[in-house]
Design brief:
By secondary structure, the protein is an alpha+beta fold. The protein contains one helix and two strands; from the N terminus they run αββ. 68% of the residues lie in helices and 13% in strands. A two-stranded antiparallel sheet has the order 1-2.
């Protein structure tokens, strides 16, 4: 193997290593973002359920949380 070929292989190895590190960083960053969005979605869902419980619609049916933690409807 010539010196030029050997340098080419080392350069390719370095490029692949840097590329894989960057790819890993992007995957980790995406996982962190998804985790954060999941927490926000859970918070928003609990706020909507609380608003339905505290401020039911007048007339028709109202949603409430029963003793088992299930969302139920009753005629108002």
């Amino acid at each position: 193997m010539t010196r030029k070929t050997e340098i080419g292989y080392y350069a390719l190895l370095v490029v692949l290593a840097i590329g894989s590190l960057r790819f890993g960083q992007l995957m980790w960053q995406q996982q962190q973002t998804l985790s954060h969005l999941h927490k926000q979605a859970k918070l928003a869902t609990s706020q909507v359920l609380a608003n339905d419980y505290l401020f039911p619609e007048v007339g028709g049916t109202a949603d409430y949380i029963d003793n088992n933690g299930l969302k139920s409807s009753s005629v108002v």
